[in-house]
């Protein structure tokens, strides 16, 4: 490829190709991607005459010409568009090919279809290589329109639908964009632990990780199968030890041979070992171990309480305070019994941390990152976005373009509350009361971004009472240097802050919010030794997908949703 082409995004590279080029096979599969045929600017017409092998799942199929041939719409997940395939009856039993969900691999020649048809290219099959059959009477994902709620009951098959496949590609694109953005800006990707012993949010709604229950159940089964020794058993073992002690004494007194004494001592040691085992086993009690009436976590796997992380922020700060610019991107967990369309028990967070930076830098980074992701989808994923616009949210592409192109509004929390109070005076009704000191509800956030400004809004300098202990206390001693990025459709997309770098201040804040100091001593060390001004934020990855696609329920934008009562697969 020419040097100038290398700088182009893949879609533009495709447009710059010689359209008579041979279609390339997938690097690790003996087939061509359907996207490499139908995703070309000419819809694949320039490939007419090429012989290819294609594979995919039948979206729709129908026999034609009184059963002499069949049309199949084939999709392999590489793009939203299907490849039309024509199979003659002499090549296969057509009834086994046409059912929705059937997997077929075929060899054939690409041909331009007759004028007036929607397709730019079709595949005339010369050989049916393989068929993964489907019983249409039992297949739970027919070609009829299915609700997203219905598909949640068939997680293992729902990716075969157009919607979930499109969301998967959009999610993939946003993940790629995330890494590209931070790598381009010299951030280091750090893997933070999923198992943690600290609560970043101080909310207490964490999943506990323990082996005490399984170990207790194992012990109970063992004690039933092999009951602990009785006092009589232990007394008998003590008696044996006493007898063995006496026997050794007698042999020594009688000046017996060294070998006789050695053998007797060995029997004594064996008796002592047996007694020790019996005494230890007699102490085993069914149930979870306790000490002073409380669960004894020193007996647990990590010798202390452990949880699934709610955030990688605190841990990734240790690297920010050493290598400057870092980010983590991984799953986080919250044991919150919420059934809303905006909450999951397992969700993904993108969390950068920037050393030598303040709240202004934090807001600049957040805005640039959101714009970058919007542009990425418009450049790299437009076919899927067009599908979402057609099927779910007509305004989703315009929303991406708007966010990508205009500056975000920036207002203080106090100004935001004043605007909301002004709206109330003007007749606007909110379910949640508006007053200084409240944590803004989703309805407040969406009013600001969708109604008042009709663009993204960054609200900063929140009351310290509604924010976490690690956020930097402002000079007014009432607010902290926190910021939230609000966008149309979802409200809060990003939450961040300048971190409190002053040792005495953050120590006092930890105590003020009622957290123990001991688990955070390592965090305080970052302020004791070479403290540095730094900031960061967290973006809820699934919320970004909701914003981009217009999908209403967060359970539909993560491959395997976990929420109260459900953890399928």
From TrEMBL:
One of its GO terms (cellular component) is mitochondrion. Pfam families: tRNA-synt_2, tRNA_anti-codon. Its EC number is 6.1.1.22. It catalyses: tRNA(Asn) + L-asparagine + ATP = L-asparaginyl-tRNA(Asn) + AMP + diphosphate + H(+). One of its GO terms (biological process) is asparaginyl-tRNA aminoacylation. Keywords: Aminoacyl-tRNA synthetase, ATP-binding, Ligase, Nucleotide-binding, Protein biosynthesis. GO terms for molecular function: asparagine-tRNA ligase activity; ATP binding; nucleic acid binding. Residues 233-289 form the WHEP-TRS domain. Gene3D superfamilies: Bira Bifunctional Protein, Domain 2 (3.30.930.10), Nucleic acid-binding proteins (2.40.50.140). The keyword Ligase applies. Residues 326-559 form the Aminoacyl-transfer RNA synthetases class-II family profile domain. InterPro entries: Aa-tRNA-synt_II (IPR004364), aa-tRNA-synth_II (IPR006195), aa-tRNA-synth_II/BPL/LPL (IPR045864), Asn-tRNA-ligase (IPR004522), Asp/Asn-tRNA-synth_IIb (IPR002312), NA-bd_OB-fold (IPR012340), NA-bd_OB_tRNA (IPR004365), WHEP-TRS_dom (IPR000738). HAMAP family: Asn_tRNA_synth. PANTHER family: ASPARAGINE--TRNA LIGASE, CYTOPLASMIC 1-RELATED, ASPARTYL/LYSYL-TRNA SYNTHETASE. Belongs to the class-II aminoacyl-tRNA synthetase family. This is asparagine--tRNA ligase. It comes from Gossypium mustelinum. The lineage of its organism: Eukaryota, Viridiplantae, Streptophyta, Embryophyta, Tracheophyta.
């Amino acid at each position: 490829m020419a040097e100038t082409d290398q700088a182009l995004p893949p879609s533009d590279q495709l447009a710059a190709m010689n359209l008579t080029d041979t279609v390339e096979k997938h690097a690790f599969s003996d087939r061509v991607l359907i996207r490499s045929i139908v995703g070309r600017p000419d819809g694949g017409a320039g490939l007419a005459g090429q012989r290819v092998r294609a594979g995919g799942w039948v979206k729709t199929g129908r026999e034609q010409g009184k059963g002499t041939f069949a049309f199949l719409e084939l999709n392999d997940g590489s793009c939203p568009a299907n490849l039309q395939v024509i199979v003659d009856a002499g090549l296969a039993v057509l009834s086994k090919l046409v059912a929705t969900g059937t997997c077929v691999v075929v060899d054939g020649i690409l041909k331009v279809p007759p004028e007036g048809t929607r397709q730019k290219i079709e595949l005339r099959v010369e050989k049916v290589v393989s068929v993964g059959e489907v019983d249409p009477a039992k297949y739970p994902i027919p070609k009829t329109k299915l609700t997203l709620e219905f598909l949640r009951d068939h997680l293992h098959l729902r990716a075969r639908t157009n919607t979930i496949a499109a969301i998967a590609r959009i999610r993939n694109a946003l993940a790629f964009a995330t890494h590209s953005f931070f790598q381009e800006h010299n951030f280091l990707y750090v893997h933070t632990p999923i198992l943690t012993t600290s609560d970043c949010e101080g909310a207490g709604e964490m999943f506990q990780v323990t082996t005490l229950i399984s170990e207790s159940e194992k012990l109970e089964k063992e004690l039933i199968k092999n009951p602990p020794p009785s006092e009589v058993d232990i007394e008998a073992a003590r008696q044996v030890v006493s007898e063995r002690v006496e026997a050794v004494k007698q042999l020594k007194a009688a000046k017996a041979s060294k070998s006789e004494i050695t053998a007797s001592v060995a029997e004594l040691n064996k008796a002592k070992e047996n007694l020790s085992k019996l005494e230890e086993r007699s102490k085993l009690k069914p149930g979870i171990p306790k000490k002073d009436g409380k669960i004894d976590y020193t007996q647990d796997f990590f010798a202390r309480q452990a949880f699934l992380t709610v955030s990688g922020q605190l841990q990734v700060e240790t690297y920010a305070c050493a290598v400057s610019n870092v980010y983590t991107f991984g799953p986080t967990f919250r044991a919150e019994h919420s059934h809303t369309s905006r909450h999951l028990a397992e969700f993904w967070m993108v969390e950068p941390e920037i050393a030598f930076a303040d709240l202004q830098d934090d807001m600049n980074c957040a805005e640039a990152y959101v714009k970058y992701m919007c542009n990425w989808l418009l450049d790299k994923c437009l076919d899927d976005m067009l599908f979402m616009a057609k099927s779910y949210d007509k305004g989703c592409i315009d929303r991406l373009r708007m966010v990508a192109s205009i500056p975000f509004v920036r207002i203080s929390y106090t100004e935001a509350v004043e605007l909301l109070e002004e709206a109330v005076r003007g007749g606007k009704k909110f379910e949640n009361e508006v007053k200084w000191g409240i944590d803004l509800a989703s309805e407040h956030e969406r009013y600001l971004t969708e109604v008042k400004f009709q663009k993204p809004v960054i609200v900063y300098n929140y009351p310290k009472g509604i924010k976490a202990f690690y956020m930097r206390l402002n000079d007014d001693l009432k607010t902290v240097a926190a910021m939230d990025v609000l966008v149309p459709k979802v409200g809060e997309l990003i939450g961040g802050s300048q971190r409190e770098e002053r040792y005495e201040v953050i120590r006092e804040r930890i105590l003020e919010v009622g957290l123990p100091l001991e688990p955070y001593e390592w965090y305080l060390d970052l302020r004791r030794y070479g403290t540095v001004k730094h900031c960061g934020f967290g973006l809820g990855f699934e919320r970004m997908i909701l914003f981009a696609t217009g999908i209403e329920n967060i359970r539909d934008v993560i491959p395997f949703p976990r929420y109260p009562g459900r953890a399928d697969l």
